């Protein structure tokens, strides 16, 4: 295979995917604005800042010139945090061609508008096909060839199948799903629940509490996901319960680690600085809080977490409020 793929953003997951693809013969170019990251990849053969310990193989090169990375690539992966996606698309609008497939690996929605990332990309790059890649896939494990499964979704499934073929290996299994709304919403909201699970850990609560948060959190994912047009069965799959499990239980998870720090008394800003990378759950919490208020959807965990992060509510008192809400049936 001699496909060419561009990764815009030198973060952990994009780097891990480039390593995996290079091993199967794909030529991968990484763009990052940080020259130190680029030099580490090219000279030290390691992304020291974002994926320490993973060896960069032959077939992966990094650049600070975005045009050099984008040109001649068949696929362009937007490997940046969700809040950067629109501006990045604007930056490359004049240098992409219509036949290049855009792949988004971020998990979130746009603050303010509440738009899914595929919608944001399509607004800025209307002539390009967009594919979402999502699922339970920690970068650290993908880079180590630990068996992983993900989902690709698109409004044009022939392009999702092309991406499936491109990424599929004997250690990285890729499924397709026509429900792009469900895939995107599941991947975004689970970050909120993972952050809450981390807060629970930081407070010192146990497995019972985490099981409750994950299960009731799943109800919130389904509630808003179906309201927005997603299919209920999608949330029982890899980008729903699958991603929720891995993000709530692993110390690879930035959201869980940040939540632990918040549960121990750190502010969201202090936790983000300690993690050293974007914590998508914090941004998602604000975006989905605003969206659920607008739509009139009950999301009590999201509601309490928002008040902990943005209004200074004591985490333990937030849990007390959740536990003492009005009685109701489990289906609600």
TrEMBL record:
<protein>
    <recommendedName>
        <fullName>Glycerol-3-phosphate dehydrogenase [NAD(P)+]</fullName>
        <ecNumber>1.1.1.94</ecNumber>
    </recommendedName>
</protein>
<feature type="binding site">
    <location>
        <position position="139"/>
    </location>
    <ligand>
        <name>NADPH</name>
    </ligand>
</feature>
<dbReference type="GO" id="GO:0141153">
    <property type="term" value="F:glycerol-3-phosphate dehydrogenase (NADP+) activity"/>
</dbReference>
<feature type="binding site">
    <location>
        <position position="107"/>
    </location>
    <ligand>
        <name>substrate</name>
    </ligand>
</feature>
<dbReference type="InterPro" id="IPR013328">
    <property type="entry name" value="6PGD_dom2"/>
</dbReference>
<dbReference type="GO" id="GO:0005829">
    <property type="term" value="C:cytosol"/>
</dbReference>
<dbReference type="Pfam" id="PF07479">
    <property type="entry name" value="NAD_Gly3P_dh_C"/>
</dbReference>
<feature type="binding site">
    <location>
        <position position="137"/>
    </location>
    <ligand>
        <name>sn-glycerol 3-phosphate</name>
    </ligand>
</feature>
<feature type="binding site">
    <location>
        <begin position="254"/>
        <end position="255"/>
    </location>
    <ligand>
        <name>substrate</name>
    </ligand>
</feature>
<dbReference type="GO" id="GO:0141152">
    <property type="term" value="F:glycerol-3-phosphate dehydrogenase (NAD+) activity"/>
</dbReference>
<dbReference type="GO" id="GO:0008654">
    <property type="term" value="P:phospholipid biosynthetic process"/>
</dbReference>
<dbReference type="InterPro" id="IPR006109">
    <property type="entry name" value="G3P_DH_NAD-dep_C"/>
</dbReference>
<dbReference type="GO" id="GO:0046167">
    <property type="term" value="P:glycerol-3-phosphate biosynthetic process"/>
</dbReference>
<feature type="binding site">
    <location>
        <position position="254"/>
    </location>
    <ligand>
        <name>NAD(+)</name>
    </ligand>
</feature>
<feature type="binding site">
    <location>
        <position position="50"/>
    </location>
    <ligand>
        <name>NADPH</name>
    </ligand>
</feature>
<keyword id="KW-0963">Cytoplasm</keyword>
<feature type="binding site">
    <location>
        <position position="255"/>
    </location>
    <ligand>
        <name>sn-glycerol 3-phosphate</name>
    </ligand>
</feature>
<comment type="similarity">
    <text>Belongs to the NAD-dependent glycerol-3-phosphate dehydrogenase family.</text>
</comment>
<keyword id="KW-0594">Phospholipid biosynthesis</keyword>
<keyword id="KW-0443">Lipid metabolism</keyword>
<keyword id="KW-0560">Oxidoreductase</keyword>
<dbReference type="InterPro" id="IPR036291">
    <property type="entry name" value="NAD(P)-bd_dom_sf"/>
</dbReference>
<feature type="domain" description="Glycerol-3-phosphate dehydrogenase NAD-dependent N-terminal">
    <location>
        <begin position="4"/>
        <end position="159"/>
    </location>
</feature>
<feature type="binding site">
    <location>
        <position position="13"/>
    </location>
    <ligand>
        <name>NADPH</name>
    </ligand>
</feature>
<feature type="binding site">
    <location>
        <position position="190"/>
    </location>
    <ligand>
        <name>sn-glycerol 3-phosphate</name>
    </ligand>
</feature>
<feature type="binding site">
    <location>
        <position position="280"/>
    </location>
    <ligand>
        <name>NADPH</name>
    </ligand>
</feature>
<feature type="active site" description="Proton acceptor">
    <location>
        <position position="190"/>
    </location>
</feature>
<dbReference type="GO" id="GO:0005975">
    <property type="term" value="P:carbohydrate metabolic process"/>
</dbReference>
<comment type="function">
    <text>Catalyzes the reduction of the glycolytic intermediate dihydroxyacetone phosphate (DHAP) to sn-glycerol 3-phosphate (G3P), the key precursor for phospholipid synthesis.</text>
</comment>
<keyword id="KW-0520">NAD</keyword>
<keyword id="KW-0521">NADP</keyword>
<feature type="domain" description="Glycerol-3-phosphate dehydrogenase NAD-dependent C-terminal">
    <location>
        <begin position="179"/>
        <end position="316"/>
    </location>
</feature>
<feature type="binding site">
    <location>
        <position position="107"/>
    </location>
    <ligand>
        <name>sn-glycerol 3-phosphate</name>
    </ligand>
</feature>
<feature type="binding site">
    <location>
        <position position="254"/>
    </location>
    <ligand>
        <name>NADPH</name>
    </ligand>
</feature>
<feature type="binding site">
    <location>
        <position position="135"/>
    </location>
    <ligand>
        <name>sn-glycerol 3-phosphate</name>
    </ligand>
</feature>
<feature type="binding site">
    <location>
        <position position="139"/>
    </location>
    <ligand>
        <name>NAD(+)</name>
    </ligand>
</feature>
<feature type="binding site">
    <location>
        <position position="253"/>
    </location>
    <ligand>
        <name>sn-glycerol 3-phosphate</name>
    </ligand>
</feature>
<dbReference type="InterPro" id="IPR006168">
    <property type="entry name" value="G3P_DH_NAD-dep"/>
</dbReference>
<dbReference type="GO" id="GO:0051287">
    <property type="term" value="F:NAD binding"/>
</dbReference>
<keyword id="KW-0547">Nucleotide-binding</keyword>
<keyword id="KW-0444">Lipid biosynthesis</keyword>
<dbReference type="GO" id="GO:0046168">
    <property type="term" value="P:glycerol-3-phosphate catabolic process"/>
</dbReference>
């Amino acid at each position: 295979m001699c496909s060419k793929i561009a990764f815009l953003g030198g973060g952990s997951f994009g780097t891990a995917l480039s390593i995996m693809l290079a091993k199967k013969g794909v030529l991968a170019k990484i763009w990052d604005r940080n020259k130190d990251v680029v030099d580490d990849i090219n000279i030290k053969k390691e992304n020291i800042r974002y994926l320490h310990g993973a060896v960069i193989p032959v077939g992966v090169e990094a650049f600070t010139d975005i045009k050099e990375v984008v040109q001649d690539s068949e696929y362009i992966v937007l490997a940046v945090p969700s809040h950067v996606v629109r501006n990045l698309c604007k930056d490359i609008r004049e240098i992409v061609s219509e036949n290049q497939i855009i792949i988004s690996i971020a998990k979130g929605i746009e603050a303010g508008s509440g738009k899914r990332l595929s919608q944001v990309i399509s607004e800025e790059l209307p002539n390009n096909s967009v594919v979402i890649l999502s699922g339970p896939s920690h970068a650290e494990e993908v880079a180590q060839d630990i068996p992983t499964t993900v989902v690709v979704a698109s409004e044009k499934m022939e392009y999702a199948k092309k991406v499936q073929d491109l990424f599929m290996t004997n250690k990285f299994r890729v499924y397709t799903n026509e429900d792009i709304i469900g895939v995107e919403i599941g991947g975004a909201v689970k970050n909120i629940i993972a952050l809450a699970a981390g807060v629970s850990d930081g407070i010192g609560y146990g497995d019972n509490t985490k099981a409750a948060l994950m299960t009731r959190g799943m109800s919130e994912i389904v509630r808003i996901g179906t309201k927005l047009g997603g299919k209920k069965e999608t949330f029982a799959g890899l980008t729903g319960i699958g991603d929720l499990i891995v993000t709530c239980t692993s110390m690879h998870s930035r959201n869980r680690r940040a939540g632990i720090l918040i549960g121990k008394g750190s502010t969201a800003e202090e936790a983000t600085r300690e993690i050293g990378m974007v914590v998508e759950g914090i941004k998602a919490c604000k975006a989905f809080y605003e969206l659920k208020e607008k739509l009139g959807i009950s999301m009590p965990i999201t509601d309490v977490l928002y008040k902990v992060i943005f209004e200074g509510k004591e985490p333990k008192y937030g849990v007390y409020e959740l536990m003492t809400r009005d009685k109701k049936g489990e289906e609600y």
